[in-house]
Structures are given as structure tokens and as C-alpha cells.
């Protein structure tokens, strides 16, 4: 255990050193972020095993992830906490940009309620992180087998009502770092309508400090905004397209607004 703690301390020191340089290699910073999170989860696993599949198991790794991000020079602020309603479940929809969204989840997890994430099954096989994410209740779906995915999500939609769960999903279905959100897939809206639970849009500003194509990873700041719920009670399957359009429009408008604010903040940071 002492050896592992020394490794995490070394990783944080390296990350802190790298955060002072805008020219630090993109691959190195991403490696520190991903490997560092794996080590954090490894340290927490012995404690998480005591209560498997419990969302509270993620509190420790989430704290460690936030500290690692700060060491890399990435800070985030969260707004709209007053819009969270913990007395009932909901489908929480977020825009998806990069692996750094793991840090967004680390900020949301302690405040959103009884959270559960839906992830592709391949994540389960990642060293340490896969087992850890299973321990904190991640729902893994096999995208290549539609029937399995639907059955798994139907079970989770039942949990939304029975245990007031917050089901966190990325409706775009893939990473997108452009200034326009991709069309939303219907899976998450099927769950919302089936459980008659509200949709909680969460918008994350564009990561101006991160560019995978140009291999840029500078210190920077992002804004997370939890928007008011969009009700689905009383809505039917034929109302889905209207609800999707409304949700997309609300999130796109906020994404444009937040991204412009974040751009100004990040420009000042690098002047």
C-alpha cells in the first residue's frame, strides 16, 4: 500500500510540473490522467468491496479524480445545484467531449443524488477502473446486442422509480468536441418515458484547453451547469420526438452560452 501511495504522489507531482507548461505533450498528460485515475480506484477497491454496487463507493475515487485534474491545471465549477430534486429519480443527460468527462462525473457524483452511470461494456475490462466502476454500480451495456441493452436499461428504469436513482447518460452516443451538439439518440428518452420520470439536462462548456486532433492539453477551466428538469409525466411514445427536440434545443442554447463564457475565461488565463 505504501508503494501505491508513493506512486500516486509521484504522479501528482509530475502532473503539477506538467501543468505549468503549455507545451507539455498531450499524450503524457492524458496518460497521467488515465493511469492516475486507475491507481486511485485501485487504492479504493478494498474499501468498496465492503458494499458492492453502492453508488457511495464512487465518493473516494471522485475526490481523487478532482485533485488529479487540479494537479494537471484543469479546474471546473458547478452551477444549478438548486435545480436538483433528490426526492425522485430522473434521467440526467450530458454532452460528451472526451475522457476528461470523467472529471465532470467526479464533480456531479457527490451532489446529484443516488447516481448510476450507463457505460459501454468494454469499460468493464479496463484494469482496476473497470472493477471499481462495477463496484459503484455502473450499468454496462453491450451495444452490439440491442436486446441485451434494452433489457438492462429496462431494469434501470424500474430502479429510477423504486430507488429514486439518477441515471447519467450521454445522449450524443459518442465524443463530440465541436461547437454544435450531435443529434440525440433515443435510448435515454425511451427510459424517461417508460419510467415517466423527468429529464435533467446537464451542460458542460467546451474544453477550449483540450484538442485531441492538435494534441493540445493546456491548463484550463470548464463550467458545468445543471439545468431545470424537463417533465415527461403524462407523455407517450408519440411525444418522444417533441421531447428530444426540446431537450436538444435547451442544451444547445446553454452549451453555446457557457462555451463563450469559458472561452473568455480560458483566453485570459493564457494571456
Automatic annotation (TrEMBL):
The keyword Transferase applies. The chain crosses the membrane at residues 31-50, 91-112, 124-141. Residues 90-207 form the Phospholipid/glycerol acyltransferase domain. Its EC number is 2.3.1.51. It catalyses: a 1-acyl-sn-glycero-3-phosphate + an acyl-CoA = a 1,2-diacyl-sn-glycero-3-phosphate + CoA. It is an enzyme of class 2 (transferase). Keywords: Acyltransferase, Lipid biosynthesis, Lipid metabolism, Membrane, Phospholipid biosynthesis, Phospholipid metabolism, Transferase, Transmembrane, Transmembrane helix. Belongs to the 1-acyl-sn-glycerol-3-phosphate acyltransferase family. This is 1-acyl-sn-glycerol-3-phosphate acyltransferase.
